Amino acid sequence: MEIGKKIKNLRIIKHLTQEELAERTDLSKGYISQIESQYASPSMETFLNILEVLGTTPSDFFKEPRTEKVLYKKASQVTYDEYDKGYILNWPVTQSNEFEMEPLLLTLQGNASYKNFEPSESDTFIYCLKGQVTLKLGDDDYHAVVGDALYFKANQLHRLINPKSEEAQVMIVVTASYL
């Protein structure tokens, strides 16, 4: 690990000049420059003082950043064929229950429905990709066709239904894992 470069990056993130960091740590601007360019190594006391001024702890400073997965290839996706129940589920992001959002592709056979959901504090987004669907939300029905979106707080009993004989497909994104 290049400590000087990491100190420099933190200083820049905090919008401090070398001179400002030097003033706040009782060091010279030249010494800060030497530390950042790896020409000098600060004592433990000086290092801890610099970290304090930069608003971090030694454990956070030395923690290696986790590489965040961005691309989820089709081969890693999970599909549950519940065709005998009237639907097929496809999870494009298999670890989504570890995140704040959980996406799901739902294919509904004609005249089929996808289970009753108990009320929760989740936000739910549904985008109609194919056919049409009806959302039963409490006592209300909402009909969506291709290109329509539904967005609601899931704080009432709700169910998704395909009212037609043709297949329907929707993308669902929920802020909690309860699908």
From TrEMBL:
* Any single Gene Ontology cellular-component annotation: cytosol
* UniProt GO MF annotations: DNA binding; DNA-binding transcription factor activity
Which SUPFAM superfamilies does the record associate with it?
A: lambda repressor-like DNA-binding domains (SSF47413), RmlC-like cupins (SSF51182)
Q: Which UniProt keywords apply?
A: DNA-binding
Please give the name of this protein: XRE family transcriptional regulator
Q: Identify the residues that the record assigns to the HTH cro/C1-type domain, covering every copy.
A: 7-61
Known SMART domains for this protein?
A: HTH_XRE
Could you tell me the superkingdom of the organism this chain comes from? Answer: Bacteria
